[in-house]
Here is the input.
Amino acid sequence: MEAVTIREAVPGDEGVILGFIRELAEYEKLLEDVVAKEADLYAALFEEDSVAYSLVVEVGGQAVAFGLYFYNFSTFAGRKGIYLEDLYVKPEFRGKGIGSALLWKLAGIAVEQDCARFEWSALDWNQPAIDVYTGIGAKPLEEWTVFRLDGEALHNFASGK
Amino acid sequence: MEAVTIREAVPGDEGVILGFIRELAEYEKLLEDVVAKEADLYAALFEEDSVAYSLVVEVGGQAVAFGLYFYNFSTFAGRKGIYLEDLYVKPEFRGKGIGSALLWKLAGIAVEQDCARFEWSALDWNQPAIDVYTGIGAKPLEEWTVFRLDGEALHNFASGK
Here is the structure.
């Protein structure tokens, strides 16, 4: 395989990243939920008050994978952490260690920045991914369930309906 | 009950908030995991590059509850969201709607700021909390499990051990 480079996303990458997000959503059978536009990603990643960060993996100059993350916070540790929201490798580049390389890069960033932890989520049926995650020593937080309010339910609750 | 006020945390609240964090950890049977110091909370909440935000609930001028949150990001929506990391109400003030009032306040902040979603997590055995969450229309993301790398496992993976 040609040389693999992992770099921070730069303005101009938002189109490639949106393409990856759509491919990932298709794999998760959630493509109809993707309403993000390139301008949304540009704002979130590159404008002042940005809330998200992304790494891009290139092989021979072609972008083949990305990892988008943000910072969370552990009240118990009193320190921030890294939460990897999306990790995606183009199908034809899977099985070459690119996903693990991205996780390794982010773990290094977490350690460098004195983060308390590095976290992400997996769909329970995505066994190939889960095998990679447990293989590198990550622990599933099986006792916890995330609750979400969005769309109409969020607006109804906020407005007292 | 005396008047209930929900306000943003201000410098000086870090001691009260740390006390709440320790009480919450005790309830979750995780007190030994709390290593946060007041200075850590001060930095995270009030210094430049702060990553966390907190609301404080007062009853008759006494702080009785808090909700600490940060922003996450939905790649599908292309918009930020609010993640409530900790919600705690002192035992003697429970059952009075204070937890729900905090959730309602945060839902309002999420809507005002055009957030895609408002999320938090619950321990699977905390049925009283889960009943409140489903009662206000929140959906449990039962298909997803969070994976965590921290402590020695994080350092070992980052350093290639």
